[in-house]
Specification:
One of its GO terms (molecular function) is ligase activity. Among the domains are: 209 residues, no CATH class; 143 residues, Hect, E3 ligase catalytic domain fold, CATH 3.90.1750; 101 residues, Hect, E3 ligase catalytic domain (Hect, E3 ligase catalytic fold, 2-Layer Sandwich). It is built from 30 helices and 10 strands.
Length: 730
């Protein structure tokens, strides 16, 4: 690559750039966002940050022009004719490698990247077609890939000629709106692998700045065109942008870059461009790359609360904050924001309680600083419901649980046990609040009508308290539940506003009732006469307490037959009925219960998948990480029993590893912070080696007898973790 000539590379263009910039200044000093002046890395001109108000002004400047000046904005300029094909180019590269003569390749690169017109002439599939729709960018992706794959293996003078050409294009005077050819050039230049090298970051920053400053309409095209890029190239562009942001925040060699005050617009520009790729990724199902691939773990090490407060105070228009682009913030960082926001709310409410006591000249006590829940084990649900309803004003205080008649002090263990027992009881099939679907291994809300939905509010409050107090719950809701929970993410002031209703699809139903969803999918693909063969109407039937009840999916639905023409509407209304309308009152109570505890602007930062991870933990296990963070009591990590244990556990199947985690902690999922956050402990049991291992789930503690050999330990451990349901709850 360019490592060897990093320092001299930009100085090579110094006179060239200085000349052009002097000519521009001779015409008039314009502060255009497209201006590129790089006489020296350390003297880059300070430019205003890219944010909504700046971009709005740039956008409106065209509209304020007199009508006679708007007319001359011409369509696409005519392109030069270039006939080189992918094979021609690859043959030239192979010949150059064999002969050592790179003239033909050098000419191709220097010509192709000399201007935006030349880029289009080389890479546009048909130079005579406009390609002005979002559906087809008109870019020959195969040719672009071939040219960029070969670029880093060419001599440095070839690579420098490409960068010189890019500077040429960026220095172009813009006299009107960008054409589709300009957008195509931006789309192609973003894929340039040279921008992985820090020596090119000044050029890269100005490219990003110009793209960030485009109009919303232009961004719309770039988003749709970007989703057609190959997964490999898409991931490379995203990684390059993330690396650019990381190295600008924490440069390995600060002298390589201009001072931060001189390039404060770098990070906002890069983040804005990254948001276009995130938008493109969200348009595809399944997405091109995982949403976690947009996380920048470097942000875990900045002052997140300052970012959060800037966002709260200034919104999206005046000052840049990463919270404006939450897709880039990792779930671990979001958890930190939510925890600190929760702690600040806890402290604020506790302080207010203290002030109220003192102002009434009452003696303060420590209990007033906590949400104290006192319950009887024999009346767990009813007592918990009464306590949370009675102490609604204290829900944002630190939770402490007391079991009546027991002397235990809650240092975290009793709270976890309370959650564990309560969740198990509420979600038991006999309780009737939730239906367990064996095919999907998840619970869903019962559609049975009742007079009081307060228990659903209790479950929502429990989930909120778990997030608020950093407790992981063993709850199996489908992803659709968390999507509904964020609809909307902030509780509306008007209580007549509909909540918990979101757009649902057949895919959402597949995650809950796969058999029914499969049947509806068969209906959609049926090639015969739907009306005659299925004889269905826009009506559904449900059994409630032994009575079959019918519901119309639309007015007079019982009189409207399902046909080949309207079956899509029927399926959509059926799915909406099952996942939204039939359980509206139940879910609305659940929604208000959750938000009564977790009401916070921090929820705006979360995706539904991230809410699920905060509530239930992550399903991805790393037993080696657990081994590294495990604490021991009565054992040393070099003792034979411990060595046997880890040899056995690391050799377990994923199913057995999950069973072990569930046996020891009450959940087979991992907290957001990873295995280290479990505070897992193995204690030496003085019981006979004939006994099975014992677990204290409230403390994530495994009590292990000193088994004599690996075979005996494995046998006893598998028996213990495979038959653990109901052990040790009383």
């Amino acid at each position: 690559g360019l490592e060897g000539g990093a320092k001299n590379q930009l100085s090579t263009f110094s006179s060239f750039i200085t000349t052009i910039s002097q000519k521009k200044e001779g015409i008039g000093n314009r502060n255009s966002p497209t201006q590129l002046v790089i006489p020296n890395i350390k003297t880059v001109r300070d430019l205003p940050p890219i944010c909504l108000d700046v971009r709005q002004k740039q956008r409106m400047s065209i509209d304020t022009l007199p009508q006679e000046l708007k007319a001359p904005f011409s369509p696409e300029s005519s392109l030069p004719v270039r006939t080189k094909t992918v094979k021609d180019f690859q043959d030239d590269v192979e010949k150059s490698k064999a002969s050592g003569d790179w003239k033909a390749v050098h000419y191709f690169y220097s010509t192709t990247f000399d201007s935006f017109l030349e880029i289009n002439a080389a890479f546009k599939k048909d130079t005579n077609s406009p390609f002005n729709t979002v559906e087809d960018s008109g870019i020959d992706a195969q040719f672009v890939d071939a040219v960029y794959d070969a670029l880093l293996n060419t001599p440095q003078d070839v690579q420098k000629s490409v960068l010189k050409g890019i500077i040429n294009g960026l220095l172009q005077e813009w006299t009107g709106p960008r054409t589709k050819d300009d957008l195509r050039a931006y789309c192609i230049l973003l894929q340039n692998p040279q921008f992985s090298n820090t020596s090119t970051y000044v050029i890269y920053a100005h490219l990003l700045r110009q793209i960030a400053a485009l109009t919303e309409a232009d961004h719309h095209f770039l988003v749709h065109w970007s989703k057609k890029i190959s997964q490999r190239r898409f991931k490379q562009v995203v990684d390059r942008l993330l690396q650019f942001i990381s190295l600008r925040l924490f440069p390995a060699k600060p002298e390589e870059f201009p001072p931060m005050v001189k390039c404060s617009w770098w990070i906002p520009s890069a983040t804005k461009v990254l948001s276009l790729f995130n938008a493109a990724n969200s348009l595809i199902n399944p997405p091109i790359i995982s949403y976690t691939d947009f996380y920048n773990s470097t942000l875990d090490h900045i002052d997140l609360m300052e970012e959060y407060h800037n966002w709260q105070c200034y919104g999206n228009s005046h000052r840049f904050s990463f919270c404006q682009y939450p897709f880039i913030i990792s779930i671990a960082a979001k958890k930190v924001i939510i925890q600190r926001d929760s702690e600040q709310q806890m402290i604020s409410i506790a302080r207010q309680s203290l002030v109220d006591k003192v102002s009434r000249r009452q003696k303060p006590d420590m209990n007033m600083l906590f949400l104290n829940v006192k319950v009887r084990r024999t009346h767990l649900v009813s007592d918990s419901l009464d306590e949370l309803a009675r102490k609604r004003a204290d829900l944002k205080k630190k939770l402490k649980v007391t079991f009546v008649g027991e002397a235990g002090l809650d240092m975290g263990g009793l709270t976890k046990e309370w959650f564990l027992l309560l969740i198990r009881q509420i979600f038991h099939p006999d309780y009737g609040m939730f239906t367990y679907h064996k095919d999907s291994h998840c619970h869903w809300f019962s559609s049975f009508k009742c007079d009081n939905y307060s228990e659903f509010r209790l479950v929502g409050a429990l989930m909120g308290l778990a997030v608020y107090n950093s407790i992981t719950l063993d709850i199996r809701f489908p992803p659709c539940c968390y999507k509904k929970l964020l609809s909307p993410p902030i509780v509306p002031c008007d209580h007549n506003t509909v909540v918990g209703i979101c757009d649902v699809t057949l895919d959402d139903l597949f995650q809950i009732m796969p058999e029914l969803a499969h049947g509806l999918n068969e209906l959609l693909s049926y090639e015969g006469n739907v009306e005659e063969d299925f004889y269905s109407t826009f009506q559904v039937f449900q059994e409630e307490f032994g009575v079959i009840k019918s519901y119309n999916l639309k007015p007079n639905g019982d009189k409207i037959p399902v046909t080949n023409q309207n079956r899509k509407e029927y399926v959509q209304l059926y799915v909406d009925f099952l996942l939204n309308k039939s359980i509206y009152k139940q879910f609305a109570a659940f929604y208000y219960g959750f938000h009564s505890v977790c009401a916070s602007y921090a929820l705006l930062l979360l995706r539904p998948e991230e809410v699920e991870i905060l509530v239930c933990g992550s399903p991805e296990l790393d037993m080696s990480a657990l081994q590294r963070s495990t604490q021991y009591e009565g054992y040393q990590k070099t003792d034979p029993t411990i060595r046997y244990f880890w040899d056995v556990v690391l050799g377990f199947s994923l199913d057995l590893q999950k069973k072990l985690l569930h046996f020891a902690t009450g959940s087979d999922r991992v907290p957001v912070g990873g295995m280290a956050d479990l505070n897992f402990k193995i204690s030496k049991s003085e019981a006979s080696t004939n006994w099975l291992p014992v677990a204290h789930t409230c403390f994530n503690q495994l009590c292990l007898p000193p088994y004599k050999n690996k075979k005996e330990l494995k046998q006893k451990l598998i028996i213990g973790i495979s038959n653990a349901e109901g052990f040790g709850l009383e």
